Amino acid sequence: MISIIYDKLYDRYDGKFGFEEVLEFIKLNPELCKINANVEQKKLV
Fold it and tell me: Which Gene Ontology terms cover its molecular function (predicted)?
């Protein structure tokens, strides 16, 4: 998912984008959240 977001935003913002741009992109492309939906995070000890 990270590489998709990076590839889409890099050219649009000439490599200068931050958290707000990433959040907006995810809001506009909610299907991206399904990519990692089955990944279970490791438990911290």
Answer: nucleotidyltransferase activity
